Model the fold of this input.
Amino acid sequence: MEDDLDRIMTVMQAAFDPAYGEAWTRRQVEDALLLGRCHYCVAQSGSEAAGFYLSRHGYEEEELLLIAVHPRFRGRGFGQQLLDDLAQQAALRGARRLLLEMRRNNPAEALYRRNGFVPIGERLNYYRTPSGDRLDAITFARGL
Done:
């Protein structure tokens, strides 16, 4: 897992815009994985990590906590590959639906909608950026 954690953090640092404060710290990722209900996948391109996801399983649901593709590998299908793996693995764990939450105007929304995710709720002013701005969160769900 240690090598995978290094790969996850490499993608995390490159993929998330610091203006939004969405990247997790190494400790946050480690703690999530130690809980036992969290799962991850790292997509590789040769010897390099192209992307990853981190999810949490609950009774008949799997929540996508983080998904990222390194900017060098965007537009090559890695995001789709990761979502496909998430759906397959979550179903094997007994999930009947996938959930995710994202900030409004996240460019990944198009990928989520293409994969059958639909908005089911929103939280106004939920996220706070490092600069203090407040952003709405949208919750999406998709059946399996």
Notes: The beta strands are 38-45, 48-58, 61-69, 97-103, 118-128, 134-143.
